[in-house]
Amino acid sequence: MFDAMTTxxxxxxxxxxxxxxxxxxxxxxxxxxxxxxxxxxxxxxxPSGSGKTTLLMVIAGLEKASKGEVTVAGQSLAGxxxxxxxxxxxxxxxIVFQSFHLxxxxxxxxxxxxxxxxxxxKDAMEIAxxxxxxxxxxxxxxxxxxxxxxxxQQRVAIARALASGAKIIIADEPTGNLDHVTGEQIIxxxxxxxxxxxxxxxxxxxxxxxxxxxxxxxxxxxxxxxxGAMP
Length: 231
Prior knowledge:
35% of the residues lie in helices and 25% in strands. The chain has 231 residues and is α/β, with parallel strands linked by helices. It has a single domain (4-227), classed as Rossmann fold, CATH 3.40.50.300. It has a 6-stranded mixed sheet, with helices on both faces. The chain has a 4-stranded antiparallel sheet with strand order 2-1-4-5, covered by helices on one side. The termini are close together. The model has no long low-confidence stretch (mean pLDDT 91).
């Protein structure tokens, strides 16, 4: 029998997230169960406001679950301090957003090196250069974000997500700000990275056809996963 807690890269059991608002408490996630195997690509779909992005935030430790169990890369996130969660993300989870979130005053090389430097890596620049070469930007190391195309900026973001040897890559609408051709290149790169590195990939997308290219697709509706929660 499949045991999500011992064999999963990500395991959520009966996860709830309730946030306050002026109109009262709002239930964003309502009893989510989810398992993602090591090395698996999971596509997550659902209408706007269904809780897809919030689910990613909980997996990454950027939002704390109100109730339930969240275990990522073998680590329970319950009870971890903000500093401990930040260190956990740095070492285990790479995040790629729709907006690239690059530091405009830093070069591509420096942007990728930042998480490595926080980790205390003495060879941060060498590792960053290698990751940029892996995503096809070896010739853009010294360029600033404003000197890069949208697709190139997203490649820098992917290289940064890979910098610390992340076991899990979380991508939230990573092609949302890109044209179709460039978006296809980015998706191919994410799948290639998953295959080459053996990382798990969790991809939120509004495009069901794209989600179906993953190993498995899960659907979120009204704060619950209504299909595809388990392998």
